[in-house]
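Please go through the sequence and fold tokens given here and tell me how the chain folds. Record follows.
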Amino acid sequence: MGVLANYPPHIELQVGWIADFLEYLAEHGSTRAEVGADAQDQWCAEVEAAAVGTMFNAPNCHSWYNGGNIEGKARVIPIYMGGLDRFMARAQELAANGYESYVIR
């Protein structure tokens, strides 16, 4: 799930973060990384919390955007609405802590 932001600035920041992550993997002789299940659940909860009060998680929003237009489909918020600064701060925190949310091989 990406961030809801103006694309040129956030793409530059995300590409830089990804490049740093790939460099980290190479420096540590790793070729694979997966996000752990707990980290996935935590991030999804953070994304949902950031969307509280928006139209995307309103009970009467039956949009293709959140899956509400398909009966029985889980409704999810596909994008982080907490702002680019908070999104990148979280990404930098992951990097500073050695990408601890990832299972790296």
Summary: The chain has three helices and four strands. Residues 7-27 form the longest helix (21 residues). The chain has one domain: 2-104.
